[in-house]
Specification:
Number of helices: 4
Helix content: 25-40%
CATH superfamily: Vaccinia Virus protein VP39
Radius of gyration: 15 Å
Order of helices and strands: HEHEHEHEE
Protein name: DUF3052 domain-containing protein
Strand content: 25-35%
Shape: globular
Structural class: alpha/beta
CATH class: Alpha Beta
CATH topology: Rossmann fold
InterPro entries: DUF3052
Distance between the termini: 49 Å
CATH architecture: 3-Layer(aba) Sandwich
Length: 142
């Protein structure tokens, strides 16, 4: 495998960790200069779509939220984000890893997610400086 092909596979691997699929629409919320560019590029590579911004006016499959301690009220942000998700959509909450500026305690994430009606399904190392927490609306019984 060439170095370029290997690099492309590694970059896609970042998005693969999030369980994203080709064709999905991913909305990016809370971008700032500290956001991980490799992760952003890998998501676009895997989905085949550019990330849409907070002004996007349709439903999305995935919301990618960059969130730091001090960004505001996480419960409010999660509640607002749920409104733009398609059925079966998910939120990937990306927070700085422990020891990094802006780190958010996992207990705070769990508490605000539950209050917003979301279930935490997994946590991963999403990028060098970022942890990812997957949040979904619980399935209802019919």
């Amino acid at each position: 495998m060439s170095a370029t092909a290997g690099q492309a596979q590694d970059e896609r691997g970042l998005a693969d960790r999030l369980g994203l699929k080709p064709g999905q629409v991913v909305q990016e919320i809370g971008w700032d200069e500290d956001a991980d560019e490799e992760l952003r590029e890998s998501i676009e590579e895997l989905t085949g779509n550019e990330l849409v911004d907070e002004d996007y006016e349709d439903v999305v499959d995935v919301a990618l939220m960059w969130w730091r301690d001090g960004d505001g009220d996480l419960f409010d942000a999660l509640s607002d984000t749920m409104a733009v998700l398609a059925d079966g959509g998910q939120i990937w909450l990306l927070t700085p890893k422990a020891g990094r500026e802006g780190h958010v305690e996992p207990s705070d994430i769990g508490e605000d997610a539950i209050t917003a009606g979301l279930a935490q399904t997994s946590s991963i190392s999403a990028a060098a400086d970022w942890s990812g927490t997957r949040l979904v609306a619980p399935r209802t019984r019919r």
